[in-house]
Amino acid sequence: MVATNGHVTPCEQCPLRRLPCLREFAPDELEFVQKFKTDELRVESGTTFLREGSHSDQLFTVLSGWAFRYKVLDDGRRQILNFALPADMVGLQGAVMDEMEHSVEALTPMTLCVFPRARLYELYSQFPSLAFDVTWLAAREEQLIDEHLLSIGRRTALERIAYLLLHLFDRARELKLIQEDKLQFPITQQHLADALGMSLVHTNKTLKRLLVTKAIRWQARTFEMVDRAALAELAGADTPPPRSRRPFI
Amino acid sequence: MVATNGHVTPCEQCPLRRLPCLREFAPDELEFVQKFKTDELRVESGTTFLREGSHSDQLFTVLSGWAFRYKVLDDGRRQILNFALPADMVGLQGAVMDEMEHSVEALTPMTLCVFPRARLYELYSQFPSLAFDVTWLAAREEQLIDEHLLSIGRRTALERIAYLLLHLFDRARELKLIQEDKLQFPITQQHLADALGMSLVHTNKTLKRLLVTKAIRWQARTFEMVDRAALAELAGADTPPPRSRRPFI
DNA sequence: CGGCGTTTTGACAGGCTTCAAGGGCCGTGG
DNA sequence: CCACGGCCCTTGAAGCCTGTCAAAACGCCG
């Protein structure tokens, strides 16, 4: 894995800090995180930068770009577990446990903040507030997966697609990635299918049914929310409200 | 929620500590946990002791008994997210975030160790080692759900059932709940169905197909592993090896 | 013995997967 | 400028898988 070791955004100037959805850091916290961050990594779209079965010495945080976590069965069947957007943490499992049991692949070019696993315990010793944040992030990710599990297990194909799109749109909005209700959407129908536990063909046909409702538009890698209420209706439920006090290491 | 406030097992004598799969505590850690544990709760089988949408002031640890985490849709469709066995932590999401987004119901009579949410931060401040353990537990639970998500999304009905049974059996074995390859199994076919995202009828028919292979026996609430290798074969994969250094608050 | 929760079975419809093939878009190279 | 390949999207057809409906059998307990 190649790191830049060149342009390293100072944490004080991290563009994500300006987001209102993220909590503010105390000066000493910020100082610690700055030292904790050893590097910045650029990866190309399509790169699997964390691999199932491997042991990673690094913990990442997404500075920009999209990724997805996934697992594959021996015969190639793939399941996308969830998506990682800016301000998300990636690779905690590998940092805390023996080895990764999932892989992570970039959907777009990404920049990742790199933290050495070996020093994670320092963080726990010296900054309980940050340690709490890490736990918070882990708990939140579990919530997202819980919701996803509910979708795959119990929602119909149409509901699944509607719910996932609604969910991703809302997360993107929190991150100010939406302009005029439009979003650069780096996901293919194959990704949708693999995330929702459906075949590509059926995903396509169901998506078409959704598109004729005119609740959304999606073409040329651009996603547009036309009627959010209608989409939520099709999903059978709205997404839970955003969480308060969201930390970002 | 009624707590016993009578019999409170001292942590030094906690029966779970004797399990080799759990890490040992330093004396000061043990002392802290002992004070952190404010109560012991007994709940009956069938009790939903944590409810979606509610805010819980308590964090639990399973001392004995089985439970399951679940979510339901408005129209009643239910998805079981995973199962909680002794030494598992329950309610961390409620302790760390605003409110629970899932419910937890007891499958058997249970005893739970009760920890006050309000003092969780003390733990983080004073015992980074324990804070790390909490994160470890959260990360591990996420791993289990990841694996479950893979099952529901990409495994066939037969594989799903085989894999889940294999998984539960292995966890029970780690906890010394198995005697002569037999296990008291508090789960009904309805639970299986709700966990695996299948209908009850189809679960029953598929389970029958599995039973004729003679890999397992399951009757009168007793589960018997007859041919573990054969079951793993039907599951299409074996369960990952148990995690080292497993903590237990 | 009756009631209730659980397991079992059959029938049937339709959701979903698989197979197959064609179309559109775009970057590469002749 | 056009041909070509690769990736993604689209569509149709066939049939299995799975859900739903309905009803009966079973086992446990009061």
Give an account of the 3D structure.
Two copies of one chain form a homodimer. With 249 residues, chain A is of the alpha+beta class. Chain A folds into two domains: 2-140, Jelly Rolls; 151-235, Arc Repressor Mutant, subunit A (Orthogonal Bundle), CATH 1.10.10. Chain A is 39% helix and 21% strand. Chain A contains eight helices and eleven strands. Chain A has helices spanning 27-36, 92-96, 120-126, 128-154, 157-174, 189-196, 200-212, 228-235, and strands at residues 39-43, 48-50, 58-64, 67-72, 78-84, 89-90, 103-106, 110-116, 182-184, 216-219, 222-225. The first copy, chain A, has a four-stranded antiparallel β-sheet. In chain A, α3 crosses α4 (128-154), α5 packs across α8 and α6 (189-196) crosses α7. The first copy, chain A, is globular and about 55 Å long. The two termini of chain A are 22 Å apart. The mean pLDDT of chain A is 94. At the A-B interface, β5, α2, α3 and α4 of A face β5, α2, α3 and α4 of B. The first copy, chain A, binds a DNA duplex (30 and 30 nucleotides) through α7.
Helix percentage of chain A: 25-40%
Largest interface, counted by CB within 8 Å of the partner chain's CB: A-B, 50 and 50 residues
What assembly state would you assign to the polypeptide chains in this entry? homodimer
| Content of β-strand of chain A | 15-25%
Q: Unreliable stretches of chain A, pLDDT < 50, 5 or more residues?
A: none
